[in-house]
Amino acid sequence: MTRIVRWAAIAVIVTTLFAGLYLVMQQIERQGADDAPGRLASQIASQLSDGSSVSATDQVDLATSDAAFYLVYDRSDHPVAGTGRLDGSLATPPAGVLDQAGRAGANHVTWQLGDGRRFATVERRAGDSVVLAGQSLAPTEARIDRIGLLILAAWACVLLVVLGGFLVERFTDGASERARRAAGAGPRGA
User: Fold this and answer.
1) CB-CB contact of 28 with 147 (8 Å)
2) At what angle do helices 2-32 and 138-184 cross, to 10 degrees?
3) Residue 132: burial class (beta carbons within 10 Å; 0-12, 13-18, 19+)
4) Please, where are the H alpha helices in the chain?
5) What is the CATH number assigned to the segment(s) 34-136?
């Protein structure tokens, strides 16, 4: 019985380690998705703080594109410039996102549209304005899914090795026990 408990404990430890590995890798990928929007928001906020204007030459349709985009909002949280478009208009994030950036100076959230598309966004205050920059999370989420499958496959392989170790130990212990019994039952009375 203790053999089963020992091998079950090993399986639980292996499972916990792989679950922890997945969680760490998932968080690294998700937090990394904020890097490009963070750089873009910082650049646009810096331009606005210097008194420069920003020109939105390329338009990004948030319903179909994975490209990075930015939006500038005035003190009343109305969009005044940017590249991010939704249904032909400058996009507006959920309530409270811009308020937090206005109070704290910066913010970052995951913004989800009604159709399920998700964006990594970073918001920065620039004077009386707030700059929101973002990009689709679809490529990041696809990478997380692939990492998850790789970790799942590695976990299954390690559990097969653990099971193999359990079976080898069981077989060798059983063979040793049979050999001891056979040796103790040698020829009687001569």
Assistant:
1) no
2) 170
3) buried
4) 2-32, 35-49, 97-104, 138-184
5) 3.30.450
- Closest by alpha carbon to 166, among 5, 2, 7, 9? 7
- State pLDDT tens for residues 158-184: 999 999 999 998 888 777 777 778 777
Nearest one of 26, 38, 43 to 152, comparing CA atoms? 26
Torsion, CA 21, CA 27, CA 29, CA 34, rounded to 10: -170
Sole residue written with tokens 């918001």? 123
Contact criterion met (CB below 8 Å) for 38 and 122: yes
In this prediction the pTM is 0.78
Give the C-alpha distances (Å, rounded to integers) separating 61 from 38, 67, 152.
20, 9, 35
- Contacts for 163 with CB less than 8 Å, ≥ 6 apart: 7
